[in-house]
Design brief:
The chain is an alpha+beta fold. The chain has eight helices and 18 strands. The strands form five sheets. Strands 1, 2, 3, 4, 11 and 12 form a six-stranded mixed beta sheet that branches. A hairpin with a 7-residue loop joins strand 8 and strand 9. Helix 5 packs across helix 6, helix 5 packs antiparallel against helix 7 and helix 7 packs parallel to helix 8. The two termini are 32 Å apart.
Length: 361
């Protein structure tokens, strides 16, 4: 079947006009931009060959740094280095009950702002700086002006959070084609929408990122996706695993753990240790006068309460959708935190099948 492109009067594409469209994953801890070339997805790189862009912005007196350069400033200038701003998007100060190192400005019923060396910065403005960096990367890689983008958002995002994302795209000069729910994007990435069958298919998308967890139950029927149920935690992810490791290190070093800017460096160290343990049985660590090692078994015990929370959400969603584990045809793991072997094993155990995780999460 041929695809028809329909345009409003005066908005049709000029003959031979070269249109450039991309897909953007605006993540809590990392973001990226991709495009379709000759029918294949290509993740676009920066000048150094990096694909993942840390979702971090550092506001110095006279310039703005985004990504890896900004992340390097987190330990030395935490007040002006903003991380995980997606957690604040479209939410009022009264809604924010998770731990964070920032002093928020504004009324309880308003979206908060952060005070930086360049003045007040809202989550929309910070997200716009991240999107602007991705836009420039795309235009450099594709050698042209961006004419459209699809941006993914969590399925649980309400209209205020979705509108905040639209505002950020507009501020970054990105023509937004549409917002696409992340679980639907994940299912499409694995080609689950092309599994031809006469009967409907039930698919679970388990998405554990850096700052958020959400799980969705999708039903595919005759090529059309329907979201049967969604759930999760808007403040549960890899950041919380890092905090668990930070507290453990403080216990080993006999110091008092405090949430605040002075412990940002410890948070970064904890993240590095966690990532190394995805492929190593144990790693060496040091903090102050303490030197020791962290092994995978200890990490698993630190993560267990967080994993149990995600498993409880999965069980509740199945009940809400009036489904059993035997009804599930496929489970997809999304989000960088799902690289951890303990999470992979827990998901496989509860759904009684090996989850799909071959694509970079």
């Amino acid at each position: 079947m041929a695809l028809l492109q329909i345009a409003e009067p005066g908005q049709s594409t000029a003959p031979h006009e070269h249109r450039l469209a991309v897909g953007i994953d605006l993540g809590t801890t990392h973001s990226l931009v991709a495009t379709l070339r000759s029918g294949k997805v290509t993740i676009l790189q920066d000048d150094l060959g990096e694909t993942l862009l840390p979702s971090v912005v550092h506001y110095a007196d006279f310039n703005v740094e985004v990504g890896h350069q900004a992340l390097e400033q987190a330990a030395t200038d935490p007040v002006n280095t903003l991380l995980s701003v997606k957690r604040f998007m479209g939410r009022s100060i009264s809604d924010i009950r998770f731990e964070h190192p920032y002093q928020l400005l504004g009324q309880d019923n308003e979206m908060p702002a952060f005070m930086t060396a360049q003045g007040r910065k809202t989550p929309v403005e910070v997200s716009a700086d991240i999107l602007l960096t991705l836009r420039r990367r795309a235009e450099d890689a594709l050698n042209g002006t961006l004419t459209g983008a699809v941006i993914t958002v969590p399925a649980y995002f309400d209209e205020a959070q979705r509108q905040a994302t639209r505002d950020a795209a507009k501020l970054a000069g990105i023509p937004l084609l549409r917002l696409l729910n992340e679980p639907t994007a994940a299912a499409i990435a694995y080609g689950l929408d092309k599994r031809h069958s006469k009967k409907e298919k039930i698919q679970i998308i388990y998405d554990l990122g850096g700052g958020t967890f959400d799980v969705s139950v999708l039903r595919l029927n005759k090529g059309v996706y329907e979201v049967l149920a969604t759930g999760g935690h808007t403040a549960l992810g890899g950041d919380d695993i890092d905090r668990q490791i930070s507290r453990w290190i403080c216990q080993q070093a006999s110091i008092v753990h405090q949430e605040g800017p002075e412990f940002m460096a410890l948070q970064i160290l904890s993240r590095q240790l966690k990532e190394q343990l995805s492929s190593a049985p144990a790693v060496q660590a040091s903090w102050g006068h303490w030197h020791g090692s962290l092994d995978r078994a200890t990490l698993d015990s630190l993560m267990a309460p967080l994993i149990d929370k995600t498993m409880s959400v999965c069980k509740r969603l199945l009940r809400d959708a009036k489904l059993t584990v035997s009804d599930v045809d496929a489970v997809v793991l999304v989000g960088g935190s799902t690289r951890n072997p303990a999470i992979h094993e827990s998901v496989a155990q509860i759904f009684k099948q090996q989850p799909l995780c071959s694509i970079n999460p």
